[in-house]
Amino acid sequence: PATADSATLDKKSAWRASGEVGGSPGYDDGDAPVPTPAPEPEPAPGPVTVVINELLAHSPAGTPDWIELHNTTDQAIDIGGWFLSDDAADPTKYEIPTGTRLAAGGYIVFYEYLSFGNANAPGCHTPFQLSQDGGTLHLRSASPGTPADYRHEVTFGPSDLGVTLGRYLSTTGSYEFGALRTATPGKANATP
Fold first, then answer.
1. Fewer CB near the terminus (10 Å): N or C of the chain?
2. Contact criterion met (CB below 8 Å) for 93 and 125
3. Contacts of 80 (CB under 8 A, 6+ apart)
4. Mean pLDDT, to the nearest integer, of 165-184?
5. Could you tell me which residues come within 8 angstroms of residue 159 by beta carbon, excluding any fewer than 6 positions away?
6. 76-107 confidence digits (pLDDT tens)
C-alpha cells in the first residue's frame, strides 16, 4: 500500500521473493531480521540478476552434465552460500562454496562430477544429476546456511544426446529456455 505507483503492482517486475519463509504479509521485509551485510557493497538480488543460463542434461559417455550461471548485471555478485537443486522440496542439495564471485556480466559452470553430483565435494549435501527427460532446476540465494530471498528456476524438457539447453531472447521479447545450436559453457549462449 505504500508503493509510489500502485499501477505497477500488476507487473511482475514490481514483485520479488520474500526473505522470510512464508513471506511477510502485512509488513515490509525491511522490518524483518536482515543477514549481516557483505564486506563489499553487492547489488541487491532483484528480478533478474543471476540466472540459470545453460545446462547439459544428456551428456555423452565420458563427459559430465553441467549447469551454467550468468550474472546479468554490471557488478560482481558474491554467490557463495547460494544453492542449486533439482527439487523444490529439498532446495539446499548443493551449496556454492563461500567466496565464489560471479564477475559483472560473467559466467560460471558447475560440473556434476566436481560439484553437485559428487557426494565428496564441498557443499554437496545431497548429490543430484540432471535428467535427460527434463525437470526443474532451482537457484536460491541464502542467508548463511539457509535458503532465502532471490530465486530463479528453469523448467526444461527432454534433451537429445549432447544438446545443451539454454536461455535465449525470443522474437516476442521474452526469455525462453530451449535447445541451443552448440554448447557454450562459460560464455554467451549460441542461438536456439
1. N
2. yes
3. 96, 97, 98, 99, 100, 101
4. 92
5. 56, 57, 58, 132, 134, 165, 179
6. 999 999 999 999 999 999 999 999 999 999 99
